[in-house]
Design goal:
The protein is mostly helical. It is 83% helix and 0% strand.
Length: 203
């Protein structure tokens, strides 16, 4: 049986998940804007400022925000009836978030640090287009994840259908047991007055 969070805990975790997920989306938008500024600017000073700002965001925010989004989403799934593999939208969201976190933490941060180092040293940055493409792709993925979180499309997975069938069968069994108990109780209650009446008459 899957443990369910209490209502206050579920609400608190939901607030955390929404805040960090929206923060991740906003951070990616900022990185995209800075990447475009660095790539399109004809000024070395502007490019250096843009890439150094990207490095600050990368060093301080990318890892904690992306990991917090992933972990809070997993905890929210496992602690509620949504589950992690019961609904297609949750399952797809999980398997898109995991590589997005890995790419952000390991690949994007390294690329940003390399660009900032080249710009600070006065060298030409060789991968300016990559610093625009990577945040653009990430932004598209996060917008898609946000959309399916709101719309919740596609229904149950095969595992989810088995889980739902099990719940229905256990609920039906419990309902039948309750009805049988109620009928037995009514039969017992109907016999008691009759016995009392017999004893009273015999006395």
């Amino acid at each position: 049986m899957q443990p369910n969070l209490s209502r206050p805990a579920r609400r608190a975790l939901l607030v955390v998940h929404v805040v960090v997920s929206v923060g991740w989306l906003g951070l990616t938008l900022c990185l995209l804007a800075l990447g475009i500024a660095g790539a399109a600017s004809g000024s070395a000073d502007t490019a250096e400022a843009a890439y150094r700002a990207m490095k600050i965001f990368g060093d301080w925010l990318i890892a904690p925000i992306s990991l917090a989004s992933l972990l809070s989403g997993v905890a929210l799934s496992l602690g509620t009836p949504w589950g992690l593999a019961r609904y297609r939208w949750v399952y797809i969201k999980f398997w898109l978030t995991v590589p997005a976190v890995g790419a952000s933490v390991f690949a994007l941060r390294a690329e940003i640090a390399s660009a900032a180092g080249d710009a600070s040293a006065g060298r030409a940055v060789p991968s300016t287009v990559d610093l625009v493409i990577a945040p653009s792709v990430a932004l598209g993925v996060y917008l898609f994840l946000t959309a399916i979180s709101v719309l919740k499309p596609w229904g149950l997975t095969a595992r989810g259908r088995r889980w739902q069938a099990g719940r229905r069968s256990s609920g039906a069994g419990a309902g039948a047991g309750n009805k049988a108990g109620a009928r037995s109780g009514r039969r017992t209650a109907s016999r008691i007055p009759a016995r009392s009446q017999v004893r009273s008459t015999a006395g």
